[in-house]
Input
Amino acid sequence: MVAAARAGGVTEAVGVGALKKRCESHESKRLLKDSHDVFLADDRILPLLPRILGSKFFSSKKQPIPVCLSRGDGSSVRERVRKALSGTVFLATKGTSVTVKIGRGSMTAGQLADDATAAFAGAVALLPGGSRSVASAHLKTAESLALPVLQRLPEKCRI
Output
C-alpha cells in the first residue's frame, strides 16, 4: 500500500505486513486515515485492505485508489501513480448503486461538466443493459446533498 498527499506526491509507502502491525487498534487506524489526503494501493492487495483497515476507513470516503504496480506496460511507476491520482475512481458499492469520484474543487465549471459527462458515459457503458438500466443519477460534493440530474422509472414500470 502507498499513502499519498495530493499536493506533495507520495509521502509514504507501507507493505502489507507492516500495515497489519500498524493498524492493530481502532485508534491507530483513525490516525492513519487522518494523516494523509489520498491513499493508493497495489491492485493485487486491494481485496485485503477492508479487513486490515476496517469499515470506518472505507466509510470516510478515503478508499485506496488502485494502482497496477506489477505489470510492465512500458510506463514508469511514477507515471502510473500520477495517472491513478488524476483519473476517475469507481468506488465499490453495495446493491444497485455505483459511485464515481470525478473532478476537484480547483477545476472550472466547464471542466467539471466535461468530467461528469464522460464519467456517466463510462459508467453506463459498464452496466448490463446500458442506459436502459439507469433509474437515476445524482451529483454531490463531500459536504452537500445529492442533486438529481436524471430521474426516471425503470423500463418495466413505464406505462
User: Anything to note?
Assistant: Residues 109-126 form the longest helix (18 residues). Strands lie at 2-5, 9-13, 38-42, 65-67, 89-91, 99-101, 136-139, 147-151. DSSP finds six helices and eight strands in the chain.
